[in-house]
Amino acid sequence: MSGAPGIRIALLSPKGPLYRHDGGIFRKSLRVAPLTLTTLAALVPEDLNATVTLHDEGIETIPPDLDVDLVGITVITGTAPRSYHWADHYRKRGVRVVLGGPHVTLMPEEAAGHADAVVTGYAEETWPQLLRDHVAGRLRPRYDMDPAFSFDRLPEIPFARRDLLRGTRYKTTNTFEATRGCVHDCSFCVVPTAWGRRPYLKPVGHVIDDIRRTGARHLVFYDLNLIANRAYALELFEALAPLRVKWFGLATALLNDRMIDALARSGCKGLLIGFESTSRPALEAMNKTFNHTVDYDDLVDRLHRAGIAINGTFVFGGDADTEDSFAETEDFVMRAGIDLPRFSILTPFPSTPLFRQLDAEGRIATRDWSLYDGQHLVFRPRRIDPDALVRGHHGVWRRVYGRRSIVSRLFRRWDRRASILPVLLAANVGYRHYAHNLERMYTCDGGAAFA
Ligand code: B12
Ligand code: SF4
């Protein structure tokens, strides 16, 4: 090492009003540390002798006067305007600004207007190269992921730098990822558009080492679809079993008995499952017909018997949805006893097939990306009045998180989920707070897009 002072890097994760630490709706209850900044920090080449600080607006105020050489900002669509604000701010102060993340991958030209360099796709190979180029004084304006990228190509996969987090401000920093990407092609989803239709797999041994070295007993997997590669998933679940951890993650509804058994033995206590809708035409409109091959009630029953709780997500506003969709969805949620239901208004994220369709039909009502957060209506629905859609969505949230509804969903039949009852109750109380404060955070007049 030369002993020369290294570059000073600040990594920022801006947040929209809902998720900001000051005034946002979620207090500490839902603050589960993202892996983005800690992963980018881990990728900084050691020989650059860099100083890296992380600033997550979800838990702290981003300082306006960071004394650094380079600012890297992660951008999702809902935070794009806020991210551009910070990017413009630091560029005016003469700091080099790099933008990356899902929204930059979807809209690189737009992001380039606010940055010295943009990075598209996963940055395991490009971010270290970019930093070396910066130090050598030859920063390029754009760095794209090689389409053939895979974790196998890396000489070493660094462990996320959780040590750099202000841990006590998060509910938990025990977040992990084994895979990225997905094999499906749902028309509203950013995943196939941004990263292609394939899973990116970390070696199972690496994932297990990561968990062991943190000593985590309760953990969350951020993988978009843990069972995208079924053979890999079974191998991972088998390797998790001896650790005797309890974990939560995301999967599709395509869970057969063998997979459920493997999940239960691995310590899985809860899964986020994108049910989206109970209606076949609605699923067809989203190109998610594989969900219709599943008997939802039977699936919930099998998961509950295995002691696995369900964070079920549903979306309103697709072209097949009518005002009846709210009651149909609510009936299923209450009948099946979905432990932690979550509802969104369909969001056409830019560059997705859904966005392109609605744009071609002249139905995109606003390109204010801050409203693209799953809770605002940003396009003209086909078979439902905009006001009715927003009110119906809020109404379902409030009703399923009424006190009696919570008790009815959680206690209507009790089984092996009993061991996580305190977690489920706490999560329901958190979502109840969200449900009852939605209108404080959002307009209820058909959405700001129609104001
Ligand atoms: C934690 C998380 C959150 C957190 C924080 C997210 C944030 N950045 O602010 C919270 C809870 C706030 C959140 C909220 C939402 N989220 Co979210 N979230 C995640 C999640 C599960 C994990 C993120 C993570 O840690 N990933 C692991 C890291 C390693 O991957 P990564 O972030 O992609 O980073 C890599 C590259 O993208 C790149 N990169 C990223 N940033 C940067 C920056 C620089 C400078 C560089 C060089 C590279 C780079 O390098 C990294 C290494 O390869 C992801 C899904 C996922 N698995 O990624 C969704 C995800 C980011 N969320 C998504 C969505 C849709 C939402 C919500 C709308 C959900 C909802 N219905 O409420 C809201 C939106 C909030 C808002 N204001 O708009 C989408 C993004 C969509 C989009 N177009 O931007 C994702 C991808 C999930 C999905 N289903 O597609 N989310
Ligand atoms: S299954 Fe989930 S992650 Fe995969 S494409 Fe569909 S919505 Fe996206």
Structure description:
With 451 residues, this protein is α/β, with parallel strands linked by helices. The protein has two domains: 146 residues, 3-Layer(aba) Sandwich (Rossmann fold), CATH 3.40.50; 277 residues, tm_1862 like domain (pyruvate-formate lyase- activating enzyme). 35% of the residues lie in helices and 15% in strands. It is built from 16 helices and 14 strands. The strands form three sheets. A six-stranded parallel beta sheet has the order 2-1-3-4-5-6, sandwiched between helices. The chain is globular. Bound molecules: cobalamin and iron/sulfur cluster. Iron/sulfur cluster binds next to helix 6. The site of cobalamin (B12) has 39 residues, from helix 1, strand 3, strand 4, helix 3 and helix 6.
Which strand order spans the largest sheet, edge to edge or round the barrel?
2-1-3-4-5-6
Bound molecules: cobalamin, iron/sulfur cluster
Name given to the CATH architecture of the largest domain: Alpha-Beta Horseshoe
Shape label:
globular
Q: End-to-end distance, in Å?
A: 59 Å
Number of domains: 2
Described by its quaternary structure, the protein is single chain
What are the secondary-structure elements, in order, as H or E? EHEEHEHHEHEEEHEHEHEHEHHEHEHHHH
Give the mean pLDDT.
Answer: 93
- What is the percentage of strand-forming residues? 5-15%
Low-confidence stretches: 443-448
Q: What is the helix content?
A: 25-40%
How many extended strands? 14
Radius of gyration: 22 Å
CATH class of the largest domain: Alpha Beta
Q: Supply the helix-strand structural class.
A: alpha/beta
